[in-house]
Structures are given as C-alpha cells and as structure tokens.
Amino acid sequence: MAGAGDRPRLKPASLLSALRPLWVVARPYRPLFWLGVLASLLSSGLNLAFPALFGRLVDASFLQLGSTDTAALDRTVLLLLGIFALSALFAAAQSYLLARVGAGVVASLRGRLFGHLLTLPPRFFAAHRTGDLTSRLTADVGTVQGVSSTALAGLIAQSVTLVGSAALLIATNPRLSLYALVGLPLIIAIAVTIGRRIRAVSREVQDAVAGANASAEEAISGVRVVQSFTAEDLERRRYGAGVQASFQAALRRAGWQALMGGTMSFLTFGSLALVLWFGGRQVMAGELTPGALVSFLFYAIQVGGAIAALTGLVNQFQEAAGASGRIFELLQERSDLPQPASPRPLQHPRGEVAFEGVGFGYGDESSGSVLHGISLSAGPGQTVALVGPSGAGKTTLVGLIPRFWDVTAGRITLDGHDIRDYDLQVLRSHIGLVPQDTQLFSGTVAENIRYGCPGAPDSEVEAAAQAAGAHEFIQELPQGYATVVGERGLRLSGGQRQRVAIARALLKNPRVLILDEATSALDNQSEALVQAALDRLMQGRTTFVIAHRLSTVQGADQILVLDRGRIVERGTHTELLAAGGLYSELHRTWQDREGEDRSPTPQPAGSLDSAQLTGSP
C-alpha cells in the first residue's frame, strides 16, 4: 500500500512560501497576533536602551573616583530598573498573546485537517496508511504549534534586537562597527545554505516517523492476528526498521544543525573578540571612554546573541516548513466524488434503485475493470440478493449505491434520478449499511446505537435495540446501555456487535438497506439471533443483500448471480434452480454446508469452496 513517499510532493520555492498557508489559517487570530508583535517590539526596544545606560553607569562609577556625588549613579540605576520592569511586562504580554495565537492556530488546523479528511473518498484511504495520516494530524501539527507561538515571538524579538543593536552599534562607533559587522554577510549566507539542507532532512525525519507510526498502528490494531501467527518478531523488525530510518535521518539533521550552530557561534563571537581587541586599544589611546567601550561591547553581544538565536529559530522554522508541507498536501487533496452545483431535493425517497449499463474500475492498471454492463432494477421495498464466487464484484456493486465510488460507465438512479444529482450527505442519510466486519467506536452502547442519530431519545434507542434483539444482552452488561464497548467494540462478541450495528441501522431508519454478508462470521446461535433481527430490519425497505444463508436467498424478490464483474444469471430462487447454472451449483453447496451444521468438510475437486461463496473483493 502506498505510503508517504509514494506521492509527488509539493516543493515550495522558499521558507516563506511553505509557511504562508499558516497565515491564512491564522486569520481569526490576527488582532491578537499584532498585539503580541507590538508587545514584542516594545520589550525588545526597551532592551536596546540597556547597553547605553550601563555604559553611563560605568563612567559614573569609574570616571568620578573619589567623588561623593552619587546623584548621576542613582538616577541611572533607577532608570535601569524601570526599563527592566517595563520590558518584563511587555515580554510577558507578548509571550501570552502569541502562545494563545499558536494554540488557536493549531486547534483550527487540527479541526480543519480532520474535517477535510472525513470528506475524502475511500479511494484516498486505500492509498494512504492510517498511521501516516494520524502522524500528520498529531506530530506535524504539534511541530507547527511551536513555530506559531514561541518561535514566532522569538523571531520577532530577535529581529528587532538585531536591527536595533546593529544601528546603535554604528551610531556609537562607526569604525569599530566595521570590525563587528564585517562577517555578517558570510554568517547570513551560511545560515541560508545550511538551513535549506536542514529543511530537506527534517522532511525525511517526519516521513520516517510517520512510516514507523503506520507500522505500529497496523500491528496494534491487528494484534490478535499478529499473536495467532506468532509474528511478534516480524512486527518488531518492521517497526524497528522504521525507527532506525527515523533515527538515521534525525542524526543527519542533528549533524547539519550542529554544523550551523558551531559555525555561527565561532563567526559571531570571533567578531566580538576582534571588537574587544580594537576597542581596548582605543581606550588605551584615550580615544574611547571605558563606558563607551562597555556600551559598544554590549551592543555587539546583543547582535551576536540575536544572530545565534535566529540560527536556532531558522532550524525550527525549517522543521515547521517540512511539517506544514505535509499538512497542506492533505488539505489540497480533493474528493473525486463531485457535488452537484444545485442538488436535487431528496426528502422522502420511495427507494426505487436502478443500475443502467453500469461499469466500474478503480482507475489503476493492475485492477482494470471490475464491473461490466450491470443493469438491474429494485422496486420500493424489494429485496435483491447478490451471490457469486469470491472476486465477482458483489461488494463493489453495493458500494456504488452510497457513492463510495462513482461509476465509470452508465448510471445509478434513485427514484428515477441519477444519484449524482443529489447532495452526497443527503443521499447517504437515506442509505443504511450493515457490513460483515462490524465497526463500533470507543464509547458506550447507547452512543454507538445513536451514531447516525445523535439526538435520539433513550426510548427510541431502546426500541431499536429491542427490534434488533439486543436489548436483553445489553441489560445484562455491567452498566447496561452506558457500558463502554472498547475500541472497535472488542468487549462484545461478534453476534453482539452485529446486533448493535443492526440497532444503529434501525434507529437511522434508512429507505435503502445494504447487508454485506452480515452473518458470515457468526456461530449458529448468534447467526440465528442476528438473522431474526435482519429480517425485521429489512421489512418495508429496498434491500441489497450479499447472500450467505439459504433462507435469505430463497426469500429474495430477485437473485442476481455475479461472476467476473458481470450478471450471468438473474431470477427467483425457483427459476434459477430450474436453469441448472452457477446458482444451482452454489445452492447445492449451501445445502450441504447448512445440512451438516456448517462443519468443515473436504471439498470435491473443482467445486466452489466456502471462501468463494462468501468472499468479496
């Protein structure tokens, strides 16, 4: 299955272009952002006064040795304390405001990304591993949070400090400033060059972490299969390979970051050493007072410190650019299920479903066409049974009705109108699905039954459970309807999960119902209970059922026999038996299997096995 590295990546032209989409997301928080920027400017501006005042303090102390007049010294100290207090106040305001902006941006981004993912079709999720998607939703968005709050505040503050200190440096002593700033172009060039490499390696780290997360999630979600096949060592190796790949990429990133940090540190503080050397000579020659040298030295230290801090921030922004690219790649994904510009109303459908020359393929060369020339009609309230060997296209066919995929030829109609003319959510609101692999969600039994109708009262929930044959076992659970079912409903048996799923469908009250081998994995007792619930669910609804039980097939209004994506036989149970074709052979196998209480039996050579009977593509 395709992973993160299998898709074409966006290649932003610059760091700013990679982070620009975040500015769009931050639109509601821009007033707070500008307040934070103002507080940062004031705090950093006040700090620029510190070196000059400290120089005056030095001159007041050392150039008036023996004097008892401390007025100048006292005023300078008080002024310094006032500046420090105001600077701290504005720094605290800046920190809070920008942190709030960052948290808000991340919350909006997470909500927007998750909501967008839910709009994408099954085709998208078939090509992307769940672990990679959750990694983008959590780790990558978390990386962006640091940039949109603390790092952004640091960038603003350090930029003000750098520009202001450099200007005051020049104003204080232009000659010394040449020595202090001579290496600045070289420092910037190195920072840009190495920063680009850090960004590329950061993307590799994030992709590798996502791959490891995907392996872990697959193994954890399928832990029963892993343990039953004693494949723990295999999964450890798979996850270990992903972790090792992320470790190696992280080492490469650390190496580039260390190179940048070490280079910047040497060039910055080497320049300061030269400044101190030349300034000391000027003081000795009487061309400069000790206080002026101290002020100049502090400004130079502020310039050097700002450059060093900006170097670290650039590393952080490069990492965030990689994460932002991965996030906005997903946000730029578009569904291949177009919505009509003016949807046709669909309030109370009759439930008449028709396939008119339908063809379908998944769009890749390996699968080719799956369905060919499918035509059928199901009247309101009728039951259509789909039978055939594994891979015949049964599940694909019923998946076209709620538009999990769109037909590639022909059309499907509901009440005489193309289903693509209806709003997608409205269409699906009238369709119920009970699959073979029941998906329950972490939460209570009642929450799972209410899943399609969140506002349903308790009385309706219980009525649906009673109709599904689930009320009795639910009452026996420790907290009844408030019992938490666990992830994927694993605290319930297979039959219990199926009856909860049927209750969920009953509460939704769909006009069209799809049953995809809903009893194939159950034991006899559970199957009898679930089938009785299904019979009640099917009453009065247009039902498409991928058949598994003989009684379901016999009671269907119409039976369609599929083979290799085509309808090869159609009719009632009696008509198809008389025809003596594929259905007759399937029927004999069903009779043998149900007559022997579904116990495993050797299959004659060339006959259809149970996997062929119940499988689906």
TrEMBL record:
Ranges where the ABC transporter domain occurs: 353-589
Membrane topology summary: Multi-pass membrane protein
Documented EC number(s): 3.6.3.44
UniProt KW keywords: ATP-binding, Cell membrane, Hydrolase, Membrane, Nucleotide-binding, Transmembrane, Transmembrane helix, Transport
Region (Disordered): 591-617
Any one Gene Ontology molecular-function term assigned to this protein's record: ATP binding
Main location: membrane
InterPro entries in UniProt: AAA+_ATPase, ABC1_TM_dom, ABC1_TM_sf, ABC_transporter-like_ATP-bd, ABC_transporter-like_CS, P-loop_NTPase, Type_1_exporter
Superkingdom as given in the UniProt entry: Bacteria
Domain ABC transmembrane type-1: 34-319
Compartments in which it is found: Cell membrane
Enzyme class: hydrolase
GO BP terms, alphabetized: oligopeptide export from mitochondrion
Transmembrane segments: 32-57, 77-99, 151-170, 176-194, 258-280, 292-314
CDD domains reported for this sequence: ABC_6TM_bac_exporter_ABCB8_10_like
GO CC field: plasma membrane
Annotated protein name in UniProt: Xenobiotic-transporting ATPase
Organism listed in the record: Deinococcus proteolyticus (strain ATCC 35074 / DSM 20540 / JCM 6276 / NBRC 101906 / NCIMB 13154 / VKM Ac-1939 / CCM 2703 / MRP)
